Amino acid sequence: MPAVVLVGAQWGDEGKGKATDLLGDRVDYVVKFNGGNNAGHTVVIGDEKYALHLLPSGILSSGVTPVIANGVVVDIDVLFEELDALDARGVDTSRLLVSSGAHVIASYHRTVDKVTERFLGKRRIGTTGRGIGPAYADKINRVGIRVADLFDPKILREKVEGALDQKNHLLVKVYNRRAVEVDEVVDELLAHAERLQPMVADTGLALNRALDAGDTVLFEGGQATMLDVDHGTYPFVTSSNATAGGAVTGSGVGPTRIDSIIGVIKAYTTRVGEGPFPTELFDANGEYLLKTGGEYGVTTGRARRCGWYDAVIARYSARVNGLTDLVVTKLDVLTGLEKVPVCVAYDVDGTRYDEMPDDQSAFHHATPIYEEFPGWWEDISGCRTIEELPANARSYLEALEELSGCRISAVGVGPRRDEIIPIHDLVHPRA
User: Fold this and answer.
1) Could you count the other beta carbons within 10 Å of the beta carbon of residue 125?
2) 333, 376 Cβ separation under 8 angstroms
3) In this model, does residue 415 exceed pLDDT 50?
């Protein structure tokens, strides 16, 4: 051991891929436990930049076994596209394990996702249209297709027929689309079976055995806390559990085996898609964060909504995840600002909220209460210790740590793999 969970502490795009890669040389397994190819990780190694969507970031670290666990929904076309792209760049992908219990995204899931989002109009959620939500809905409705089903053509056909029985009525009679042919879907999925089978395993068993053997396992969450289907800004959320609890249900490893939980959080805040965002900026500061931070989605290419650091959300994330550590990323983006505001509480119709409102309407109408901190002008990308940071940058981090209710254990000062300041050991838990 240990077993370490790493999750996003905001609305995603916090730099989880970089944090995972930072730990990659010190862990034996990296596990993706939720989501699908609806999010992306960008990892910069030397002069090479890698954009991953479905694969765990640990696949870029030699000697690490990357795992797609049972809590993930898998688009097999995307899986093979990513593997082929990495193989072409000389990355060894042969260690990848895929859970036999992971659910499969079929072509009709993507179709339903897109037509449903268009049908919602102004009430749209802002999905990526990649079939993630419909695949999870089928899982909960018990008409889903799992990876193991691809190796039994009879079972596969029965499951596809069952899934399409209702969907075709919906597509034809409500959305005015053509019905999906059972044979077409079955043939598409069976075409992947031969190549996929060598990767498939009982990953829950493999991970528990790895922990028994003393290996270090890192559980890497997709999306982030505020997009968790239970604990996020519902209904503007993803369809899975992106909080630390999802690492348990999404992998088959029990909660008593988890040793530490790391939250990755930007030095400011961004969000992609619809939904409330109290600190969102619509002025020159928002444009500055967008351009300086390169805030465009890895998966969608959409410009991210940008705002100041929200300590209320940070405290909430620390609480619902049980965070032991924070990794603050993109501190360098704030360089050059005269003042750096931090949201310390909300005002909702004259009432102050120091904690996250449990009422959706209250959060939607929350106005941030800011405290301002002095900025800095020095280039910090070359700093490798906290002592090398400008005094105002150190003061800003000290304030974030106190306001967020969790110790900061590493700070990102640039996009490259080595542009990070370690403060505390992220792999081994505190004594």
Assistant:
1) 17
2) no
3) yes
Tell me: cis bond preceding 235? Omega within 30 of 0 counts. yes
Q: Determine the residue type at 428.
A: H
| Residues 201, 219 contacting (CB under 8 angstroms) | no
For the chain, the first-to-last Cα distance in angstroms comes to 14
pLDDT of residue 127 exceeding 70, the answer is no
User: Can you spell out the DSSP letters for 390-424?
Assistant: -HHHHHHHHHHHHHHTS-EEEEE-SSSTT-EEE-S
Q: Could you tell me the sign of the dihedral formed by the alpha carbons of 77, 79, 82, 88, in that order?
A: negative
Q: What are phi and psi of 287, to 5 degrees?
A: -65, -40
Extract the tokens encoding 250. 């999404």
What mean pLDDT do residues 241-257 have?
97
Q: Tell me the C-alpha distance between 228 and 281, whole Å.
A: 23
Contact 77, 191 (CB under 8 A): no
- Helix/strand/coil (H, E, C) string of 333-361? HHCCCCEEEEEEEEEECCEEECCCCCCHH
CA-closest candidate to residue 343, choices 381, 323, 376, 373:
373
Encoded amino acid at 255, one letter: P
Q: Nearest 5 degrees, angle CA 220-CA 295-CA 130?
A: 60
Q: How far apart are CA 26 and CA 222, in angstroms?
A: 21
In this prediction, what percent of the chain has a pLDDT beyond 70? 93
Residues known to be catalytic: 13, 41
For residue range 22-57, list pLDDT tens digits in order: 776 789 999 999 999 876 666 766 677 788 889 988
DSSP lists the bridge partners of residue 42 as 51
Segment 142-197, tens digit of pLDDT: 999 999 999 999 999 999 999 999 899 888 888 888 898 999 999 999 999 999 99
